[in-house]
């Protein structure tokens, strides 16, 4: 039954869809804004390591795409789409508010030392918040798009198809703006007793936008066309399918004639309309089987591709881009490509006489995504040519740095190096830890001094030398390029007493005499630093500036003493900055975005158009379920797959999707498009005829018969 509503229209479209599009924009802003912060919140506020943070993050994303099944059940069987959206949006808003509260440092910081005293309370609150968000966002996902489709009348197929494009545009516009704004809010400093990264503000804005989303949706209430729920549809579907399978098994002998479709074995118990509707759904669900592989590749732009960007240079002309900002390229291209495809490419293809059906579009989308990973593999090969080699297995790497005032000669097994004062070896030398049996230091007019140190295999080490009989071995602690394109900086103290260094707000505490600090990491640009030491005279300059930091480099800053006793800085390169430009990732993002436009937008519209009226949310949930399965594939592959070369993993994923693409194309070849409305109208007509025959068993004879009588 259709609810009462006044018909409002604008430019040939129902006015109600504009409220739905604005609602979707705000909701996606809320979701993606929160999600952009989540991994950093887990890592730096809660204090989980990278592995656990990544696992919880992907589990949450997968859960968000599993709960649409529940939302579809509630909408189609109990509350209807409108009430389901409103109810679960309230749950969603509460969840966003809870996670914002969980990020307030002062909530449990009773001793005001800047660290929460009960981190478990924050973890519990954040998990409750994420569970409510997963229920809310997942529950309304299948309902909003289907509810938008419900607003159109028969004969408005063109407008409805355009709506799904606009709807997808709103999703990506919300995603784009939120992923730019919320990280900017996070880096603000706030707090009552101690100043921290402002997670409460960064999470609070998405919570506010979710509240706005709910209000906007409710305002349009009187304009919506609402369908009443038609009972527990999913339960009927499950029971009908179960009966058909059971009945077919009972009649498996050859004496029973075969039926046209396996669901026809349910005709003895269930009416023909329901059986026909389930046939429509199962035919589409069967097509969904290969689709998760597309999402398994698509979702890696937030993980693998971001890690790839971290090994590249982000300086594009006068613009500087951070690795995690490259994801916005996808959202920007979506905003550009959706109108171009809808207004230019598809009409041009139609004029050429090519029947570009939805399933053909989806096949092309899968092929383009596969090619995107081929492009990523090519870029990775270029990156690998520039990456430093780190020790593996039982290997160790050693670099010698002479921080003294004499020339030094250092002998290793099989090689000898001579260093001038304030210099270092050009590269790290690689040795097998078992063969690094003797290292000797000598200088003109001095005895040979052996180096006795137990080197830790699989790590880089720096041998600091400042006199023939004075040396120290320091474990570097860097076994990979600095992540996120940041730059590692450490300080070496050649003074007689320890000192502190403050660089860009980060403090190196008590850097010991003739020792090296740990690395700390900074984004690109020039950084200021100050040296605080009792040995430095007040007449000396103690404020310095770094060299220009690019992307992914590491440096050692040696603080030496000049003849006048004042400090001077000598800079040594440990890891060279990235040289392959992030602009080379744009082709792979372009291919993946084009694939997403023709795959995802089309899939939404196809799922709606091929579903019977009482099962549209169920089929939308099935579509979203493929995204969840895709995320689970990523988790499995990330956990099980061990590749020595990253490009090989990209090629494997590209090959897998290409195989799946061929399988899907074959499946699509045998799919027959239907119009569920026409089929249901025919059933209505047949039922009407049967009702008339039943209510009037003695029809009047025609006039010719009466004349004869």
Notable features of this structure?
5-stranded mixed β-sheet, single chain, alpha+beta, 709 residues, disordered C terminus, disordered N terminus, elongated
Tell me what the structure shows.
The protein has 709 residues and is an alpha+beta fold. The protein is elongated and about 125 Å long. The model is unreliable at 1-5 and 700-709 (pLDDT under 50). The chain crosses the membrane at residues 29-46, 52-73, 85-104, 119-140, 161-181, 201-220, 331-350, 362-381, 621-644, 650-671. It is found in: Apical cell membrane; Membrane. InterPro entries: MFS_trans_sf, Oligopep_transport, POT_fam, PTR2_symporter_CS. Belongs to the major facilitator superfamily. Proton-dependent oligopeptide transporter (POT/PTR) (TC 2.A.17) family.
